[in-house]
Amino acid sequence: MTGRRLLAYVIDLFVLGGILILYKLMLGFLSVLTFGLLTPLLVLIGAAVPVAYHTLTIGGPASATWGMRVFGLQVRVWNGGKPGYLQALLHTAAFYVTVSFTGGLILLWALFNNRGRCLHDILCGTLVVRRTLGG
Question: Reduced to 3 states, what is the DSSP secondary structure of residue 113?
Fold first, then answer.
């Protein structure tokens, strides 16, 4: 399962890379169009793109990012339900905070956890499971 999560994240990085390339093109166009006046605001919005991607996909009906969907994974809350958008935002924020403060080394936690849960999963009361046929 940990291998599936890793490969799913690699796919998510490619998806995010594509989204950010499109965003950068739009940023350049709008910066020229507004003579640079909106550039600081647009850069701040660009920083929110990865957070929005993870929050909207994990909190959405599929409860999974595009990479997770490819590998048949879903995020569930501890009682088996689907996370809402607020819990997905907390999950995403915990992921980015723990990964940024440890340089990604915190993800090794999943290798030593008997359920393969990462620290951000434990902090938010979520787990990543294989998707069932019904949902």
Answer: coil
Q: Please report which confidence band the pLDDT of residue 63 belongs to, taking 50, 70 and 90 as the band edges.
A: very high
Question: Could you identify the residue written with the tokens 């969907």?
Answer: 69
Which of these, 101, 65, 110, lies nearest to 83 by C-alpha position? 65
The whole-model pTM stands at 0.86
Q: Could you report the per-residue pLDDT of 100-122, keeping only the tens digit for each?
A: 988 888 888 888 877 878 889 88
Pick from 117, 44, 126: which is nearest to 78 by CA? 126
User: What tokens were used for 66?
Assistant: 């595009």
Taking CA 74 as the corner, what is the angle to CA 83 and CA 117, rounded to the nearest 5 degrees? 85
- Give the closest residue to 121 by CA, choosing from 80, 76, 86: 76
